[in-house]
């Protein structure tokens, strides 16, 4: 994956070009068709995702909780806490996501405290809202 894909994403704001390149090297870019599932509610958490193009729907108990688009991410709660997935995520249309294994997310968070802080804020906001991914 190219670092320029991450440069405009708020999660990576403030990182240098070299730091973006190190982050980008950890991600795998994946193209998905509409209806493709990425996360199943209740599963163990092994991956973290960033939406690059298109949109994904976040569902809990088959109810739409949120729609996420380019620059937004999901899977952080389970990836960082080790808890099971609290929602299902499905591609709304053709989309491209950047996928990262849980252990690489933790490594990236350790190396880049600003990324970790952003993720922790998102976890707190989503946990408080109870309806977010």
Structural account:
With 133 residues, the chain is of the alpha+beta class. It has one domain: Jelly Rolls (Sandwich). It is 34% helix and 29% strand. The protein contains five helices and eight strands. The strands form two sheets. Strands 1-8-3-6 form a four-stranded antiparallel sheet. Strand 4 and strand 5 form a beta hairpin. Helix 4 crosses helix 5. The longest helix is centred in the C-terminal third of the chain and has 17 residues. The protein is globular and about 40 Å long. The model has no long low-confidence stretch (mean pLDDT 92).
Task: Compile the SSE list and pairings.
Blueprint: H1 4-7, H2 17-24, E1 28-32, E2 37-39, E3 47-53, E4 56-60, E5 63-68, E6 73-74, H3 76-81, E7 88-91, E8 95-101, H4 102-111, H5 113-129
Antiparallel strand pairs: 1-8, 2-7, 3-6, 3-8, 4-5, 4-7
Helix pairs in contact: 4-5
> Span from first to last CA?
24 Å
Tally of helical runs? 5
CATH topology: Jelly Rolls
Give the overall silhouette.
globular
Percent strand: 25-35%
Give the number of DSSP strands.
8
| Low-pLDDT segments, ≥5 res | none
**In terms of structural class, how would the helical and strand content be classed?**
alpha+beta
Mean pLDDT: 92
Helix content: 25-40%
Order of helices and strands: HHEEEEEEHEEHH
Total number of distinct structural domains? 1
CATH-defined superfamily: Jelly Rolls
What profile does the largest beta sheet have? 4 strands, antiparallel
Round the Cα radius of gyration to an integer and report it.
14 Å
User: Strands across the major sheet, in which order?
Assistant: 1-8-3-6
CATH second-level architecture: Sandwich
CATH class (first level) name: Mainly Beta
């Amino acid at each position: 994956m190219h670092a320029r894909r991450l440069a405009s994403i708020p999660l990576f704001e403030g990182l240098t070009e070299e730091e973006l390149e190190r982050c980008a090297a950890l991600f795998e870019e994946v193209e998905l068709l509409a209806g493709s599932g990425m996360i199943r509610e209740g599963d163990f958490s092994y991956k973290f995702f960033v939406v690059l193009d298109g949109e994904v729907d976040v569902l809990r108990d088959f109810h739409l909780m949120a729609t996420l688009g380019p620059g937004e991410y999901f899977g952080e709660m389970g990836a960082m806490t080790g808890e099971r997935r609290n929602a299902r995520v499905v591609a709304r249309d053709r989309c491209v996501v950047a996928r990262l294994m849980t252990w690489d997310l933790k490594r990236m968070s350790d190396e880049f405290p600003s990324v970790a802080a952003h993720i922790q804020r998102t976890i707190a906001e989503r946990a408080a809202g109870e309806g977010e991914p």
